[in-house]
Amino acid sequence: MGNRKDTVEEKDKALALFETKEAKGKLALRLFSSSIFVGICLIWVYRLTNIPRVGERGRWIWIGMLMAELGFGFYWILTQAVRWNVVHYYPLKQRLSQSYDDKLPGVDIFICTADPTLEPPTMVINTILSVMSLNYPTEKLSVYLSDDGGSQLAFYALLEASRFSKHWIPFCKKFNVEPRAPEAYFTRNFDAHDTAIDAQEWLSIKKQYEDMKKRIEAVTNKGSVPEELKNQHKGFCEWNSNVTKQNHQPIVQIVIDGRDRSAVDSDGCRLPTLVYMAREKRPDCPHHFKAGAMNALIRVSSEISNGEIILNLDCDMYANNADSIREDLCFFMDEKRGHQIAFVQLPQKFNNITKNDLYGNFSTVLNKVELAGVGGFGAALYCGTGCFHRRVSLCGSKYSDESKGLLNLETRKSDERTVVELEEASKVLASCGYEKGTQWGKDMGLIYGCPVEDIVTGLTIHCRGWKSVFYNPDNTAFLGVAPPTLDIALVQFTRWSDGMFQTFLSKYCPFIYGYKKIKLGAQMGYSVYLLWAPISLPNLYYAIVLPLSLLQGIPLFPQVSSRWFIPFAYVFLSKNIYSIAEALICGSTLKTWWNLQRMLMIRRTTSFFFAFIDCIVRQLGLSQSTFTLTAKVVDEDVSKRYQQEIMDFGSTSIMFTVIATLAMLNLVSLVGVVKMFFWGLDYKDIEKLISQVILCGLIVLVNAPVYEALFFRKDKGSMPGNLLMNIGFLEFVAVILLAFLCNPSAVLGIRFVIDREECFSHNVKYDGGTIHVSFVVIKAYSTWHSSHEGVDLVVKGPSGDQIQDYRDKISEKFEFVAHQKGVHRFCFSNKSHYYETVDFDVHESYFTYYDQHAKDEHFNPFLEQISKLEEALYNIQFEQHWLEAQTERQAIVNEAMSKRAVHKAFYESAALIGASVLQVYLLWRLFERKLGMSRV
Ligand SMILES: O=c1ccn([C@@H]2O[C@H](COP(=O)(O)OP(=O)(O)O[C@H]3O[C@H](CO)[C@@H](O)[C@H](O)[C@H]3O)[C@@H](O)[C@H]2O)c(=O)[nH]1
Ligand SMILES: [Mn+2]
User: Fold this and answer.
1) Ligand 1 center to 654 CA (angstroms)
2) Cα separation of 309 and 394, whole Å?
3) For residue 670, with 0-12 CB atoms within 10 Å meaning exposed, 13-18 middle and 19 or more buried, which class applies?
4) What is the mean pLDDT of residues 422-434?
5) What is the residue range of 877's domain?
6) What is the Cα gyration radius of the chain?
């Protein structure tokens, strides 16, 4: 029995078209993760058991830390799910070619474009040409271009490409060139490439390409197609009426009809089918962005070629491996497991990644571990591009065990119809009204209502019982364009995190929608991405509260000598060391890892946070979701900086304001605390703060390029000079500071009981420094003698001369310039015969010193900015202290009022914060509008 089973298995293996391998070292990894988990639990316990009591200093900050760490902890658990079960897939391509050649399915390739400026037609046709020349039987290959821009420029470029393909395809196949996108191919050096290629032919095809490119660019620059060119193709008559991006009739043009035996290349071989489609768009009819385009493509292609397999690509993603179709078909055509597979997702790779990947666009860990990890649960994510689909599963069919093998779809419905008939039939399917009252966008095709149509659609396919594969080939199959500036990258991440959080909050939440339909690991894996937006909150909390509480001297972590320090240190170190090791093993460099950490921080505090707010606002029904197209071309100056890996802050974005503010906040408090440490000011207990100092230090280190852009660089990509004076910036600082005012804790100042006379001395470090002084009589031990509550204050300089003099004051706040450094004396006297409690505060502005003495060309603006911010922080703290003392006095004077007064102050601050947050948000929206972001 056992023997027979073995042989059956052997036979299955021999026939299998792909194999799977589990990643190595699973057990060790699971043990290691468990140890970190124990550490995290201990941290939670510590936080829970050490909450400062009501009225104690830093209680709310502490509770905030608890929440943040709960958030980090739970998110970390999710990230373990994608590491728990990593599986790698390997197709066995040779076997496929041996026995399946005549059974190969029809493959329809969809390419989407939406805007001829952001996605230049030359780029689009490079993608088109690369897929038209793939090694696959041409009669089974159809290429569709969906043009959401409805642009005659794109149509013109496609016509040019169809003509050029007659020479390009035979050239590629004859010399087996790679890659098959002409632009990418020709930018490679000929000599260094392949000497088997005939130099003459190479030069001639290169010239043909360049001539075509020039023609297309000339037309693109002009903005319209000249009449004489329009007369060359009937298709242009579609643009005779007023066709705009937002408003036009459906256009379907079969540029090359694959059935046509006369449609051949220069070698006499048949050409693949090539179709242009611009679905109908009307202003009053929602078009659902890319999802809408894809669904129209699914229907139109079913009318024309009805390929069983659909490959969908973004217009910037050219094919880089001529054999990739066959490779990926192995998964679908495997006899034993293939019929369950709905789609095969390939990693999104880029052809413009620089050495150290400054913007963290390409994460090797993401592709080698995380995405493969979700794939390990049979639920690899659909990422929108570079994905092979089984047509039936994409159209909404449920998986069923019976439908083994590929369903032989009826290809080429009624071959007799003419091209014009097919086009007319297709237009109906691409019209606005067609979807009304149907399941398209709900249970059929790509799901509507979310800017990340891909992830949701993948989820619904999984929940219909299908499996999917994440396949990361050594030989990169497709290459796209990574965002070349920080701004573009952050806008893209905003769309993603927004869309994904929206999905989480919708009925498609994987834990609800996927309950009992997909594995728990897959539900968690999905959530790692769907919860990007909310993870911004604990990150922001850390980035703001750490530096501020450091400045105030509030310790947030256990002392180094405490046992509780161990779990913190263990979790922090092991998590980061693990992350470095993982990155290095996956083949990235230390510098790349470091750059990625910076980007993670930036994304989490900007994109994800704005997405979070946007998403919540949308949930309240105040706005609608949009799709901000990722720009794929930039001007030369910008692209040069990208190549040199210099961060580009050259546009106005509220995101940059946030980045600069957080970076400054951390720098200021780090500088502040280091200074206090050296001068031995107030901070005897620096040990308690060491963890915060280290964390702030790391934040400062990772932000180095931000300071550079703020203060040292002069190029166009540096932070706009007036950014610091920008309203957004000030607003933001105000929000943060106000948030802190909520926390009733005073560090500065002393409180003393005065009988007759009491003197204090303060050592003024620099002459010319400004000294801020305040005092409040908090409590007099006599309630009826109110007329004599006041005290006198005399300030004397180092030489004993009287500088300031205040008589009979209940409270006072003043500042003066110290003309001499040295010990100043502050003497209070009480004329009433009762004890009085006085709150006294003195503070010196240190940086005025630098202002006057260190006029170094290079450092001065830098220090100036720091000093201004630091000054602002101190002044606000000083102010806050004074206000608090006043409030307290008020409260004591009128016991009955006390609670109410405190509460009132609290609510006032809360309202202010709310208002400011709203304002920042509105500003952000405003900026976006002003920049005229191309919303499609
Ligand atoms: O109304 C629209 C908007 C976009 N697109 C196309 O969609 C593709 C992706 O748009 P892009 O601006 O390049 O977005 P990316 O952030 O690069 O795209 C990633 O994220 C998207 C989801 O947010 C997925 O759809 C994409 O496949 C995935 O590559 C492009 O080819 C566009 O032409 C349309 O066809 N119609
Ligand atoms: Mn893109």
Assistant:
1) 23
2) 10
3) buried
4) 95
5) 750-897
6) 34
Strands (E), 347-471: 349-350, 387-390, 467-470
- Greater model confidence, 839 or 106: 106
Q: Which of 587, 582, 606 is nearest to 357 (CA)?
A: 587
Residue 736 has pLDDT above 70, yes or no: no
Cα 275 to middle of ligand 2, angstroms = 22
Quick one: which atom of ligand 1 is closest to the CA of 312? 27
For 872-919, how does the pLDDT look when each residue is reduced to its tens digit (9 = 90+)?
A: 656 666 666 677 777 777 666 655 344 444 455 555 556 555 555 554
State the average pLDDT for the chain. 85
Alpha carbons 465 and 340: distance in angstroms, whole number: 8
Determine the pLDDT at residue 61.
92
Q: What is the pLDDT of residue 894?
A: 58
Q: Is 1 a member of any domain?
A: no
For ligand 1, what atom is nearest to the CA of residue 630?
12
Please report whether residue 830 resides in a domain: yes
Question: Is 702 found in the same domain as 657?
Answer: yes
Q: Structure tokens of 294?
A: 């894809």
Tokens describing residue 32: 């290691």
Residue-wise pLDDT for 590-628, tens only, equals 999 999 999 999 999 999 999 999 999 888 877 777 888
One domain, residues 669 and 781: no
Hey, which of 112, 119, 359, 389 would you mutate to test ligand 1's pocket, going by the most ligand atoms within 8 Å of its Cβ?
112
Q: Is the pLDDT of residue 858 over 50?
A: no
Q: How many Å lie between the centroid of ligand 1 and the Cα of residue 138?
A: 27
Nearest C-alpha to atom 13 of ligand 1 is from which residue?
Answer: 630
- Does residue 313 surpass a pLDDT of 60? yes
Q: For the ranges 82-91, 247-256, 455-464, 864-873, which has the lowest average pLDDT? A: 864-873
Judge whether residue 926 has pLDDT over 60.
no
Q: Binding site membership for UDP-alpha-D-glucose: which residues? A: 119, 148
Cα(826)–Cα(839) distance, integer angstroms: 13
Q: Is residue 46 part of a domain?
A: yes
Helix, strand or coil, per DSSP, at residue 334: coil
* pLDDT confidence of residue 843: 76
* pTM of the predicted structure, to 2 decimals: 0.81
- Ligand 1: which atom is nearest the Cα of residue 146? 35
Q: Are residues 73 and 166 in the same domain?
A: no
- One domain for residues 617 and 718: yes
**pLDDT of 864 strictly over 70:** no
Task: State in Å: Cα 385 to ligand 2 middle.
Answer: 8
Number of domains in the chain: 3
Query: Domain with 883 in it: what CATH number?
Result: 2.60.120.680
Closest of 712, 612, 714, 717 to residue 656, by C-alpha: 717
ipTM value for the complex: 0.98
Nearest partner of 295 among 437, 391, 413, judged by Cα:
391
Ligand 1 atom nearest to CA at 115: 33
Q: Which residue CA neighbors atom 9 of ligand 1 most closely?
A: 314
Ligand closest to 630 (CA) is: 1
pLDDT at residue 739 is higher than 70: no
Binding residues for Mn(2+): 290, 314
Task: Report CA(630)–ligand 2 centroid distance (Å).
Answer: 6
Does residue 559 share a domain with residue 417?
no
- Residues framing ligand 1 (Cβ under 6 A): 112-114, 119, 146, 148, 289-290, 293, 314-315, 384-385, 451-452, 454, 492, 495-496, 499, 627, 629-630, 936
- Share above pLDDT 90 across residues of the chain, in percent, rounded to a whole number: 57
Candidate of 245, 314, 493 to mutate for ligand 1, largest count of ligand atoms within 8 Å of Cβ: 314
Residue-wise pLDDT for 11-49, tens only, equals: 666 678 999 999 888 899 999 999 999 999 999 999 999
Assess contact for 316 and 183: CB atoms under 8 A: no
Answer yes or no: is 292 within a domain. Answer: yes
Q: Which residues contact 529 (CB under 8 A, 6 or more apart)?
A: 381, 455, 496, 500
